[in-house]
Amino acid sequence: MPSSVMSTSTRQDGDPSPVAVSTTGLRKSYGDKVVLDGIDLHIPAGSVFALLGPNGAGKTTAVKILSTLITPDAGTAHIAGHDLTTTPQAVRASIGVTGQFSAVDGLITGEENMLLMADLHHLPKTEGRRITAELLERFNLTDAAKKPASTYSGGMKRRLDIAMTLVGSPRIIFLDEPTTGLDPRSRHTMWQIIRELVTHGVTVFLTTQYLEEADELADRIAVLNNGKIAAQGTADELKRLIPGGHIQLRFTDPTAYRTAASTLTDTTQNDEALTLRIPSDGSQRQLRALLDQLDTAGIEADELTVHTPDLDDVFFALTDDTDQPKGAVR
């Protein structure tokens, strides 16, 4: 979809940038159960957006609405510049969706799965075969192309699943927990594939149960809890919302340590380890102020480290589900 039809936002440099997904007040209920309670999202084109939240937070419901599988009860949404409600066909032509469970047909070969998708997109036979060959090579599946998909490993099936999604050249891809069940090597392969998609201008809307995955891939992250967006921003912005960040100074010279301890205020001292902890929001401004204070006093630490809360801390602080294992969101 040409970017000219998308709505635009203004980047920090003042230039307009296309918006891939924009929602205002999105709501969805099932009976008395409110699943989405007024969701506002603003996702620039050519970026990775991650939606986090515990079980039942509404992540999959949001994906289903934005991919036209179900309709919202209220609110507006524009996908690739198309109104979700009035032009759903145009939205479908602009997107691709890969769910938690593979859409691959194990009874036919990888190549046949790809060609079937080409037929569903009404591509001419020659064009379908060309795109199939290109995508199989791009996803390192050429050698397995003639084998039944049932013989593929989990990672290979995931790669084939995304390759099938790309047959229609979507500009926005919804990946609903794409690495669930994959081993660490396959997960990292999927991460590389997602990065490559973005370099080609594709926008990726990602839901994931792995906090590390969101931290590694996402340009912006939203935390969904009880149907509402609890917070959204870059990973660093979210981490700064949570108290507990600090700067640690380590000394080998006891005299320098005692001088620093008496000079700096609001420190936590460890006399045995010769370390000082100073509360910090992790900002460059605060770090520079501390360094200036040390220089003025003629104090030199042997080691300075900045510690900020991680996404685990953010997730557990912003959601009600405190029983989840550390590092995983379901």
CATH superfamily of the largest domain: P-loop containing nucleotide triphosphate hydrolases
Helix percentage range: 25-40%
Radius of gyration: 24 Å
Strand arrangement, major sheet: 7-8-9-4-10-11
Brief account:
The protein is an alpha/beta fold. It is 34% helix and 26% strand.
Notes on the protein architecture:
The chain is of the alpha/beta class and 330 residues long. It folds into two domains: 3-104 and 152-239, 3-Layer(aba) Sandwich (Rossmann fold); 246-307, 2-Layer Sandwich (Alpha-Beta Plaits). The chain contains eleven helices and 15 strands. The chain has helices spanning 59-66, 88-94, 110-120, 125-138, 154-165, 184-199, 211-217, 235-239, 254-263, 284-297, 311-318; strands at residues 8-10, 16-30, 33-44, 48-52, 74-79, 82-83, 95-98, 172-176, 203-207, 220-225, 228-233, 246-250, 268-270, 275-279, 303-307. Strands 7-8-9-4-10-11 form a six-stranded mixed β-sheet, with helices on both faces. Strands 1, 2, 3, 5 and 6 form a five-stranded antiparallel β-sheet that branches. α3 crosses α4 and α5 runs parallel beside α6 (184-199). The longest helix is centred in the middle third of the chain and has 16 residues, at 184-199. It starts with 7 loop residues before the first strand and ends in a 12-residue tail after the last helix. Mean pLDDT is 87; it is low at 1-16 and 322-330.
Keywords:
330 residues; five-stranded antiparallel β-sheet; six-stranded mixed β-sheet; Alpha-Beta Plaits
